[in-house]
Amino acid sequence: MKSYFCTNRVLAWTFTGIAITALFFACKKDAAKNTDPVVAEQSDKQVMAGAAYQAEVDLYYSDIFDAVSAGAAQQIPDPSARRSEGNPALLTTPSPSCPSAYIEGGLTWPITVNIDFGTSCSNSLNNRVRGGKIIAVFSGYLTTPGTTVKVTLQNFTINGKPVSGNILYTVTGYNKEPNGGISFTQKITDGTVKLNDSIIAVYNHTKTVKQTNGGSTIANPGDDEYDTEGTGTLVYKHTNGTNVSISISTPVKLHTSWNCQWIRSGQLKLVTEMVAGTIDYGAGDCDNKATVTVGDKMKEITL
Prior knowledge:
Blueprint: H1 11-20, H2 37-75, E1 100-104, E2 111-116, E3 121-123, E4 128-138, E5 148-158, E6 161-175, E7 181-194, E8 199-213, E9 225-238, E10 243-257, E11 265-271, E12 276-283, E13 289-294, E14 297-302
Antiparallel strand pairs: 1-2, 2-4, 3-4, 4-5, 5-6, 6-7, 7-8, 8-9, 9-10, 10-11, 11-12, 12-13, 13-14
Organism: Chitinophaga jiangningensis
Protein name: Lipoprotein
Keywords: Signal
């Protein structure tokens, strides 16, 4: 596995399409709520916009652990990790010059790994440019149950957008059978991303991830599959003083695999004070189709 957190890289593609569907929906509101058509349309658009923001923010925090796990593999590799030689998916460092990863202090747990991107470090694997520094404190190997990784960020940016917050990863298990792998939780506290000049997103989220395939080839991500679920909130703040809060949950686990850029199955739910939206990713096929439901309206979208 190149990274234990590759499950979110597909979400940005998903919500780019979802945001467009706001033009097609007029939600039927509960009788106890405001049924003004202008308010209804505004609420629908808030959910759709929030979906796009959540996807972008979650992708950035997933990208952080991509860097953390790569830094761990370089500086504190698990001696039990099995590597499948010759697999191009093992190319974890697209640039020989950045980032630089080094251990601060000695090799006694807990071990602090600094990952320094300088002012600009481009990743050709995902076309993102990172800057600043990630500091990760490991209590043990990533394949050891009970291991925690505490992450802090220093002047960190992705594609020029400032990213901050506290992140805690906890390994809850590891099964080295072919249909197993790592299980872990990710907790983001006061994650903050400046999306543009007028919108700042504040993200508090906890997710659990369970690997369902590829457990016997720890260093080879090509056969990895994951189930992900979680809950949290995203508040996006406008400079005009308007704040929109959205609750996020996964009523049906999201299933992903390394060899498919789309979410194969599962559901994501986004709820504001006025309206809820659900995105259904299907029954397991690797395709770019999903169904969006807002109120009593339904539409298939192409991601």
